[in-house]
What does this fold into?
Amino acid sequence: MTATDLRIGLAGTGRIGAAHAETLTTLPGVGSVVVADADTARARAIAAKVGAEYLPDVETLLAAGLSGLVIATATDSHPELITRAVDLGIPVFCEKPVAADIAGTLAVIDHLATSPVPVQIGFQRRFDAGYRAARAAVESGTLGWLHTLRATTLDPAPPPAEYIARSGGLFRDCGVHDFDIIRWVTGREVVEVYATGANRGDEFFRAAGDIDTAAACLTLDDDTLATVSLTRYNGAGYDVRLEVLGSRGNAVVGLDERAPLHSVEPAYPPSTSPAYPDFMERFHPAYTAELAAFLEVAAGTRPSPCTPADALAAFYIAEACARSRREARPVTLHEVRTGGKIP
It folds into this structure.
């Protein structure tokens, strides 16, 4: 199969799915894009907007002779769509998470264990130029040995209450991106976490058993320390950064003219550029590069750059943080990996 033969299916045409539809139709190597969604009117409208083919349901989509399938549906549908597509021999790109919990994720991984069909999970920060440069700096040794990482994911405003109720919580929905990128940039594993959280915003977070702000300290397997700060209420704008601090130097991701940071130092002029409003704008190039990589995966010219096992590793860290906050104690990754499903 050549790159120009690719017929890519897209399941789900919500916010991220609609963006993926537009990107896919512009990428070199895509012969056709086929979309389907339970909301048929929305799917039909997106297909017409981007010049894709509309199909009435996922059943028809899976039978449409696909070279690859992009899954951007609700989380509870991910396990079935992944396994069904793989069983049909269709390479899969699926937005995180693989499943809503550890047990479901492990079940999918077990199902895929003997299949040669590749699955790529959507952690777009791995394709961001800044994060890639930070990883290269760590690998080159120019930073020396690492002692501290500081990661932030600060949303400017919360999503709707109905989303929060189904999100899995701040650590699993939001912090999981930081947990994945810390592993990826450093090449190390997290062995212990201590996490806390607070609610000072809308009541619907508390009603859902969630928090709107959190902080976590992670200990890596070489005793490097990492802190992760999360909030749904960063009114200055969308602020996602990573500081990688070593014995000989440092690398900082996300520190540009659009970072929503306001220095009060008299001699430091404020930026005149608008802050990033959301993740879609901040990471648009990364999303494009991520889907371009999937086309190579679907064509059989590269292995998956982010496997379900990678997603599980980040999910374990998120689960450990959720348990640590709930029980107000340090939690090791060993006890999460060996303790079964966490309620």
User: Anything to note?
Assistant: The CA atoms of residues 277 and 342 lie 34 Å apart. DSSP finds 13 helices and 13 strands in the chain. Residues 3-124+285-306 form a domain with the Rossmann fold fold (CATH 3.40.50.720).
